[in-house]
Amino acid sequence: MRESYLNWDEYFMGISLLSAMRSKDPQTQVGACIVNQENRIVGIGYNGFPRGCSDEEFPWEREGNFLKTKYPYVVHAEQNAILNSMGSLKGCRLYVSLFPCHECAKYIIQSGIREIVFMSDKYAATESTCASKRMLDAAGVKYRQMKPIDVTVQVSSSKE
């Protein structure tokens, strides 16, 4: 029996990280994967502009006049995963590459997701993340950080 294979957390976080690679944001690429209690994927998303809003016409800037930055326009990975989901999210787990902001925390709580597995918490000291954790704690949504893993895929070939 093969011994070095991905566990469920590694597998779903890998899908989240792969989804992040679809983002066209030049600074921050975030991916999310929602999984039900049977370990079935029920939603995937990444950060980007809403359908019909051209990546060439809307700004990717982070600083300056609010309407000339990406912030009023970008849909976060968690929001896209929830919006793209199939069926009820009650009791599901969310795998996300970056800890959710306060706005995403509201969507997560309202959707019925019960656990968040995240990789990076680089904005832990911000007011947004503090508000997010306060709401998640109050709503009983668990969250835990997953450390980066070294995934080396080895494909074995068999001679037939």
What features would you describe in this structure?
This protein has 160 residues and is an alpha/beta fold. The chain is built from 4 helices and 5 strands. β3 (93-98), α3 and β4 form a beta-alpha-beta unit. The longest helix is centred in the first third of the chain and has 13 residues, at 8-20. The chain is globular. 29% of the residues are buried.
Largest sheet entry: 5 strands, mixed
Oligomer: single chain
Mean pLDDT across every amino acid position: 92
Distance between the termini: 19 Å
What does the overall shape look like?
globular
The share of residues in helices is 25-40%
**What is the H/E string?**
HEEHEHEHE
Q: Tell me how many strands there are.
A: 5
Strand order of the largest sheet: 2-1-3-4-5
Stretches where pLDDT falls below 50 for ≥5 residues?
154-160
**Secondary-structure content class:** alpha/beta
Summed up, the helix count is 4
List the helices and strands and how they pair.
Elements: H1 8-20, E1 31-35, E2 41-46, H2 77-83, E3 93-98, H3 102-111, E4 115-120, H4 127-139, E5 142-145
Helix pairs in contact: 3-4
